[in-house]
Amino acid sequence: MKSLELLSEYSNYLEEQKLEGKKIIAFMSHDSIPEELIDAAGFIPLRLIFAGNDDLMNASHDYLPPSTCSFAQSCIGYFARKPNLYKFLELVDYILLSNHCVSDICVSEIISDNFNVERLNLYVPYTRNESAIKYYKIELENLRKELENIIGHEIPDQKIKESIDKYNLFKKKLAEIEKLEISGSQKLEIFQKAILFGPKILNEIEKLIQKNREITSNDSQTESNNKKVIFTGCSIFLGDYLMDLIEESGGEIVFFNTWIGHNYISQIYSDKILNSTDDPIDLFLYRFKTNIYGDHSVPDSLDNEISYLETFINEYQKENGEKLAVINHVIKFCDHFSLFQSTLKERLQNKGIQVLNLERDYSRANRGQLSTRIEAFMEMI
Amino acid sequence: MSKTRRLEKSAKNLTKMMGMYYTYNKIQAKKGKYVVWIAIVVPIELLKGFDLVIAVPENHSAMCAAKKLGPTLAEVAESKGYSMDLCSYARIDMGSMFGKGKNSPIGGLPKPDLLISNTNNCSLLSKWFDVYHREYDIPHFILDVPFCYERQKEKDLHYIVNQYKDLIYLIEDLTDQKFDIEKVKEAIHQTNKAISQWKRFLSSAAHHPSGISAFDSFVHMAPYLSSHRGTPLIVNHFKLLADETEKRMEEGKFPVPEEKYRLLWDNIAPWHQLRPMSKKLAQLNANIIYATYTSCMGTIEGKLAQFPLDPSKPLFSLARIQNATVCPYGLELRFNAISKMIRRYDIDGVVFTSNFSCKPYSLMQLDLMRKTKKKFPSIPCVMINVDHADVRKYNEEQVFLKIEALLEQIDNSRQK
After folding, report:
1. Which of A100, A102, A350 is the best residue to mutate to test the B interface, defined by the most B CB atoms within 10 Å of its own CB?
2. Same domain, A95 and A238
């Protein structure tokens, strides 16, 4: 229900923005897309973070084989069907084609070719060496030029810097949400909304944090019997029923180690870094260079991820006396996370951490089976 | 007539060459020579500047699949938690690695010292090689190749050249060997000669009936994807292949003598089905005469003609040819290539093969098929499902039902 309200609100917001003459650039979620540059150019960045269902996946089969990642299928399904709550996709002016994975590339190209959406390209290197950083810089500069050509004037450095500051402050606030004593589903709703609206909802986030602090200080803390888990792997996208299943099964997600969650929020610049350069492109490069956890980067991103999880779990145990278990979410046919799951489970289990690898698509038919697996896991921990 | 008998000398030579390649690799590795595992698109010519054992996991998987060992090996990886939805090349070769070569016809590949993957034909490859990187705790170099939507841009060319330089420094550092650019130039020279013979061989498809089937090209491309590339051996092999094909044509010996349907294939070969599929097609007087997969060797940007490498600019030439792959980028490039193939080879129907194990090749095919149907309304197209190396995902009846329907459509189209 909450996601319906959110979509309706988002739809109204985009319509208003369009009436004001703003253009919309959509893209599949990706940790190296410089949304601040898009924002500084006066465009609305629209991250495609919408979960699918049977109908949408079926609709995509006019364009994609069924062996495509279920999220990618759903993205195409949304553009093909444009369900009522997603009519705003008709407002999209550009699709930013990037290369998080093969599906990202092909789906963006299919959207551009079949749904009359102009394409912009941004190649993000898979490595983090000097050659890759130089190349990423060229790509960023080219994207900046393309955006400038569209708007007909230069995007001043100052404007980009302001946008970076704005998003940075926003992410800092979101980091506070991570620590609030609210349910996993509440956190997820806030993160999803934040990814859609961006810093426009900063005030709302601040109020929410304040309100929650007041409630927490007034209430005596009640012990929850729920099983505490970390959620990692593929993000939970908007409209997905997975969060409900986890909570109905007695699970409580205390940490979202996913792109919609910590991976996004953690991309915060320190003041020292922000003040270290006048060239905003350098700041994007810094972020790219230091992003060692994203599944897009190779080699070693999985090793970094595993050590990070281990450290987090150990620290949590020291502070709270509880050992967290891990749910590793793999959307069917997602090659990246699918290739990670065996090693991730083996290594964490060797450290005494329980892991559930949950590979699934968006089909309703799987709901019962998923629920049983989650319940069994919760009982086990 | 079976293809082995028709191109007997070439087939024998191929067996000898590939046997030699695998045996040589094993012996040299045992002697302590530095072993590099590469992804298929990594330019072997560049590595000829060093004295290395070069092994190609994808090639190994295809060979295991052709020998009907794909499922046995894939199941080893699956039992370790690797999803059955992953590329079967990855599952088969990982299965071989986890089983320490057990059930591989060659006892697995020699243990690597360095891994080199690439990103231009598939984003899974580098993750797959990362499994080896973790398992063996050895360096993994990723050749990062940007989009290929149009003619290669200067920035992309320079990016690739810079990475080649990085790779050279890395290997020098790891092996204490000095890179010899002259050997690379010589390898490029040999590759030019080899591809010219390969193109000569492929051009036999223009004849009516076709002098070759795509299955011939699938089988004989193998040495190009091994360390024979860039050597006189491969030049001789492709020359032998082209000569023998022409000789057989002069003698009136064709893969499908009563050829009634000339088909084009778009995807990787189903390695486990080469013989049964070609045999069954021949019984229907149908011949898959040409394939996008084997046509792209030695070409760039969806063109059919050879792209001559310039030995005086070895790194730039080898970077330029990175825009060779037919997938996954650039629907327009792929469509242009298919259009040329249809015209040049007088194609009657197109078999688009949706491959469970190759997303890059398969994801854009429905659009590609739509475009082809629009531009060539009299050329029927069909979409079949295969898996290039996992026979468990192949349904012969379903595939041939569709192919037979395609042949009927061709008949109907001729009657109009």
Report:
1. A102
2. no
Hey, is A153 helix, strand or coil?
Answer: coil
Residue A87 has pLDDT above 60, yes or no: yes
> Strands B114-118 and B53-55: what pairing?
unpaired
CA B43 to chain centre: 13
β-bridge mates for residue B354, sequence order: B385
Chain-chain contact of A99 with B124 (C-beta, under 8 angstroms): no
Enumerate the β-bridge partners of residue B266: B352
Which residues lie closer than 8 Å to A176 by C-beta, 6 or more apart?
A: A209
The residue among A155, A175, A203 that closes a domain is A155
How many C-beta neighbours within 10 Å does residue A105 have?
A: 27
Nearest one of B134, B231, B220, B116 to B171, comparing CA atoms: B116
Question: For residue A77, what is the domain's CATH number?
Answer: 3.40.50.11890
Q: Which of A90, A64, A66, A84 is nearest to A76 (CA)?
A: A64
Are A282 and A363 members of one domain?
A: yes
Q: Are B330 and B360 in contact (CB under 8 A)?
A: no
Task: Examine the pLDDT at A347 and tell me if it is beyond 70.
Answer: yes
At B184, list the tokens: 């690379």
pLDDT at B2: 44
Q: How many CB atoms lie within 10 A of CB A241?
A: 17
Residue B328 pLDDT > 80: no
Whole-angstrom CA distances from B48 to B21, B23, B41 are 15, 19, 15
Does the distance separating the beta carbons of B83 and A125 come in below 8 Å?
no
CATH architecture label of B9-174 = 3-Layer(aba) Sandwich (3.40)
Cis ω before A66 (30° cut-off from 0): no
Residue B140 contacts A where some CB pair is shorter than 8 Å: yes
Listed residue (B340, B354, B331, B357) closest to B295, CA to CA? B340
Task: Return the SS3 of B117.
Answer: strand
The minimum CA-CA distance between B93 and chain A, rounded to whole Å, is 14
Question: pLDDT tens digits, residue range B78-131?
Answer: 999 999 999 999 999 999 999 999 999 999 999 999 999 998 878 899 999 999
pLDDT digits over A174-199, tens only? Answer: 999 998 989 999 999 999 999 999 99
Question: Which tokens is A40 given?
Answer: 């500084």
Tokens of B324: 């060779």
| Cβ-contact B313, B188 below 8 angstroms | no
